[in-house]
Amino acid sequence: TKRQLEVWQINANKSDDCMHDFLCNDEGKADIIAVQEPYIDWKGATRALLHLHTIYPTGHLDNFTEMPTRSLIFINSSIPTEDWARLDIESGDVTAVQITGSFGTLHIFNIYNDCNHDRALRAVEQWYRTPAARIVPVSDWF
After folding, report:
1. Which of 51, 61, 109, 110 falls 20 to 30 Å from 91 in CA-CA distance?
2. How far is CA 8 from the centre of its chain?
3. At residue 83, what are phi and psi to the nearest 5 degrees?
4. pTM value?
5. Tens digit of each residue's pLDDT (9 = 90 or more) over 100-138
């Protein structure tokens, strides 16, 4: 039987409490969790659970103190690691993954869209070159 991919989205407003409460209520149900404005501690890490792989934007640890990371993706460990890969997009406001399966190839972009500029969208536009892939934008600005 085919199983649907369950994608959740949250804007944590950089709150540790929000991240904790949300993750504790996940109960392993979501396959993909897209977080905008995640809580990031002084070491550059966020809160996560053991069954979740944390995907940070490209270059996150290189500059999270100067340029805040405003996007990340959690992938449930029930999705085999050989079925997905992080896509390298040069923006702390964009995290993206490619998932491959019997359905083909799916690109999921978690975009934090700053109201003062469109650099995140331009970074995605610059990266995107595969017209056959399906795009599932995940954001709280739709």
Report:
1. 51
2. 10
3. -95, -5
4. 0.84
5. 887 788 889 999 988 888 888 888 887 775 554 555 566
